TrEMBL record:
Assigned protein family: Belongs to the Lgt family.
Pathway assigned to this chain's UniProt record: Protein modification; lipoprotein biosynthesis (diacylglyceryl transfer)
EC number: 2.5.1.145
UniProt source species: Sulfurospirillum halorespirans DSM 13726
One GO biological process term: lipoprotein biosynthetic process
Transmembrane regions: 23-45, 57-79, 109-126, 133-151, 183-200, 212-229, 249-266
Cell compartments where the protein resides: Cell membrane
Chain sites annotated for binding a 1,2-diacyl-sn-glycero-3-phospho-(1'-sn-glycerol): R152
Assigned GO CC terms: plasma membrane
InterPro entries given in the database record: Lgt
One Gene Ontology molecular-function label: phosphatidylglycerol-prolipoprotein diacylglyceryl transferase activity
Main location: membrane
Name of this protein: Phosphatidylglycerol--prolipoprotein diacylglyceryl transferase
Amino acid sequence: MLFWNNIYSQFDPVAFKLGPVAVHWYGLMYMCALLGALYAAKWFVKRDNLGFTNQILESYFIWIEIGIVLGARIGYILFYDPHVDYYLSKPWQMFNPFIDGTFVGIRGMSYHGAIVGFFLGTWFFYLKHKINVWRLLDVVALSVPVGYIFGRIGNFLNQELFGRPTDVPWGIYVDGVLRHPSQLYEAFLEGLAVFLLLYVYRNFKKYDGELIALYGLFYSIGRFVAEFWREPDFQIGFVYGDWMSKGQALSILMAIASVVLYMLIIKRGKRG
C-alpha cells in the first residue's frame, strides 16, 4: 500500500489554474456536492410524489446555499478561529479571499455554523413562499448526505482536516507522520451511513419533519464517533479532559436538540 500511504506527496490539491487563480479539487468537489444534493432532492420529490416543483427546489437551494456559506464562515470564526476579535472589528475580512494580494480562497468553514445558516435561510424562504416547510426539510435530510460525501472527499483531496497518528496499514503520511484518513471515515459515517438509514426510514415515517430531526441525530452520532480518529483543531485542542474535541461537544448539543425536535414533531403529529 506504499502508493496509497504516500498519496499526498504524489497528488496536487490544485486541479488546474485559470491565470493567477488556482482551482482546487476541493472547489470542484464542493460544486459536485451542491449539484449532487440538488439532483438527489429532485429525484426523491419525483419518486415519492412530494409535490414540489423544480422551480421551488432550485430557488430554495439558492436561499439555503447563501445561508450555509454565511453560517459556515461566521461559525468558524466564532467557534474555532483564535483571531475572533480581529474579525468582529473588521467583519468584511471574513470573506476576503486574498492574503497579501495573493488569491488563496476562503479557508475555514464550520459545519455546525452552516446548520444555523441553513435553518435561517429555510425560515426566510418559508416566509416568502408559505410552503410545507417540514416536508421540504425531509427532502433536504435525504439529499444533504449525498452532497456531504463529496464534501469530505474534497477535504481529503485538499489535504486538510487530518486524522490522528496511527499505525494502521491504510494510513496516509502527512509531513512524515502516518495518520488516519479521517476525512474518508467521515464521508462514510456522516454521509453514506446517514443516507442509508434515512432512505430506509422514510418508508416508515408518519409525520413530516421526522427525517430532518433524525438527520441531526444520526449526523451527530457519526461526527462524534469520527472525531476519535480526527486530529483536534490545533488552535483549540481538546475542550474536555484529553479526549473530547470541540466538534464532539457541538455534536452532543446538536444531538440533544435533534431529539427534542423529533419529540415535538411526534407530539404535534399525534395532536393532528
